[in-house]
């Protein structure tokens, strides 16, 4: 399997080549077509298996197709929830570099707690296409009407196991209440536990199941 065979656009293939990804990883091979098709996905795969690009590449492709040319006011269409500030930055950077050659420029907002909220509120003025956030700070911003989740078409839970380990279950629940009921859900975790399973069941609708991890 090659990235080209997975149905990615020439601009994304260029970005993949620039990062020296020669072949898609197993989780990418399985997830990319499903995400492109709009399916929900539940992927269990160990750390380092390439989960970020597995959701970022197909979501970037779909965002390009759906984007209105020259529209200035941006609505959040993809929301990625991550457990930590560090991961928020890493995922944001990966998405930015993979989007580098796309003809329609995307605005990506990286949001996290433990830093002043004002610059983040300023950055969200005029909207964003993709928001990557830790749960607590996202709720603070929602309480401040700094962004709206009414137009989110895809929700990604990245490192769902760590989100739960860090005690974010209630925050996630409150965020879910603000999302449109009709949406795509992508669920990524390195480990599987009863709590992870419960969250996945609550969230996912007939998901494509990808299990590349050892499920011990
Ligand atoms: P995970 O989220 O599963 O822990 P990441 O998405 O962070 O994994 O990717 C781990 C590393 O592998 C990163 O350095 C990333 O750039 C690299 N990587 C991702 N996909 C590929 C690929 N197809 N070929 C080579 N390296 C890749
Ligand atoms: Mg990851």
Automatic annotation (TrEMBL):
Residue span, DEAD-box RNA helicase Q domain: 1-29
Residue ranges of domain Helicase ATP-binding in the record: 32-210
Motif, Q motif: chain positions: 1-29
Keywords assigned: ATP-binding, Helicase, Hydrolase, Nucleotide-binding
GO molecular function, one term: helicase activity
Keyword Hydrolase appears in the UniProt entry: yes
Family: Belongs to the DEAD box helicase family.
Protein name: DEAD/DEAH box helicase
Organism of this sequence: Undibacterium umbellatum
Full-sequence portion shown in this chain: 1 to 216 of 418
